[in-house]
């Protein structure tokens, strides 16, 4: 569980444990404690900083959202840390009334999520961002993110794309909901490369995923898939 078990010899006289006696101690989550060392070398300091700051090593992020409520999280091998909570009022859709207020509210909500991703996610470390929601909220947000990133030239989103190995691993784990791919890959002179991506597209479709092929000749495809 979330408890650290420690055992050692007591080196300070106190009313609870005799000098030199062995003692065990349990430290639970959020319990304050002090570590004292005669010398803190650079490696020891680095390890403490990494343990205290999940952004240093968390390579998986997740956005869990519902209309008007979202959590931006970092996921490590041992814990999930909420980095941001986005909560906003969105006017409900009502029969016979214009939907413009609802749509404007959703756009503001999606924009706040994008800002939270830029502020809290280190894309030089994070390898994958999971979008999760009931209904079609995640698809709506993904569409908004791509369109806004292209329009505003937000390179932090445009330049972070997965390579074939990462995508294939996700596909094999049935973890791809929407695959974004450039049509240039299907015009490659490398026959084996074309076959790999065709098989990848077929695999995602067979697993009920959505495949969106962008034209490399269109400005959205050119910006989204261009290399550094």
Automatic annotation (TrEMBL):
<dbReference type="Pfam" id="PF26356">
    <property type="entry name" value="Pelota_N"/>
</dbReference>
<feature type="domain" description="Pelota N-terminal">
    <location>
        <begin position="2"/>
        <end position="51"/>
    </location>
</feature>
<dbReference type="Pfam" id="PF03464">
    <property type="entry name" value="eRF1_2"/>
</dbReference>
<dbReference type="GO" id="GO:0070481">
    <property type="term" value="P:nuclear-transcribed mRNA catabolic process, non-stop decay"/>
</dbReference>
<dbReference type="GO" id="GO:0071025">
    <property type="term" value="P:RNA surveillance"/>
</dbReference>
<dbReference type="GO" id="GO:0070651">
    <property type="term" value="P:nonfunctional rRNA decay"/>
</dbReference>
<feature type="domain" description="eRF1">
    <location>
        <begin position="60"/>
        <end position="163"/>
    </location>
</feature>
<dbReference type="InterPro" id="IPR004405">
    <property type="entry name" value="TF_pelota"/>
</dbReference>
<dbReference type="InterPro" id="IPR005141">
    <property type="entry name" value="eRF1_2"/>
</dbReference>
<dbReference type="GO" id="GO:0032790">
    <property type="term" value="P:ribosome disassembly"/>
</dbReference>
<dbReference type="GO" id="GO:0046872">
    <property type="term" value="F:metal ion binding"/>
</dbReference>
<dbReference type="Pfam" id="PF03465">
    <property type="entry name" value="eRF1_3"/>
</dbReference>
<dbReference type="GO" id="GO:0070966">
    <property type="term" value="P:nuclear-transcribed mRNA catabolic process, no-go decay"/>
</dbReference>
<dbReference type="InterPro" id="IPR038069">
    <property type="entry name" value="Pelota/DOM34_N"/>
</dbReference>
<dbReference type="InterPro" id="IPR005142">
    <property type="entry name" value="eRF1_3"/>
</dbReference>
<dbReference type="GO" id="GO:0005737">
    <property type="term" value="C:cytoplasm"/>
</dbReference>
<dbReference type="InterPro" id="IPR042226">
    <property type="entry name" value="eFR1_2_sf"/>
</dbReference>
<protein>
    <submittedName>
        <fullName>Protein pelota</fullName>
    </submittedName>
</protein>
<dbReference type="InterPro" id="IPR029064">
    <property type="entry name" value="Ribosomal_eL30-like_sf"/>
</dbReference>
<feature type="domain" description="eRF1">
    <location>
        <begin position="165"/>
        <end position="224"/>
    </location>
</feature>
<dbReference type="InterPro" id="IPR058547">
    <property type="entry name" value="Pelota_N"/>
</dbReference>
């Amino acid at each position: 569980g979330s408890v650290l078990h420690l055992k050692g010899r007591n080196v300070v006289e106190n009313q609870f444990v005799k000098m030199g006696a062995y003692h065990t101690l349990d430290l639970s989550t959020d319990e304050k404690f002090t570590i004292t060392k005669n010398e803190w070398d650079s490696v020891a300091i680095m390890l403490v900083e990494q343990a205290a700051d999940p952004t240093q090593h968390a390579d998986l992020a997740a956005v869990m959202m519902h209309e008007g409520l979202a959590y931006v999280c970092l996921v490590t091998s041992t814990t999930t840390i909420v980095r941001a909570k986005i909560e906003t009022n969105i006017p409900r859709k009502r029969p016979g009334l214009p939907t413009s207020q609802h749509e404007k509210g959703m756009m503001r909500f999606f924009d706040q999520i994008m800002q939270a991703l830029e502020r809290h996610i280190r894309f030089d470390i994070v390898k994958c961002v999971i979008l999760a929601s009931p209904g079609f909220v995640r698809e709506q947000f993904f569409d908004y993110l791509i369109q806004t990133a292209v329009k505003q030239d937000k390179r932090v989103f445009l330049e972070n794309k997965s390579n074939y190995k990462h995508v294939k691993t996700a596909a094999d784990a049935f973890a791809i909901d929407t695959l974004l791919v450039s049509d240039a890959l299907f015009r490659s002179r490398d026959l084996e490369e074309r076959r790999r991506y065709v098989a990848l597209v077929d695999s995602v479709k067979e697993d009920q995923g959505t495949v969106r092929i962008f034209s490399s000749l269109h400005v959205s495809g050119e910006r989204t898939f261009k290399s550094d």
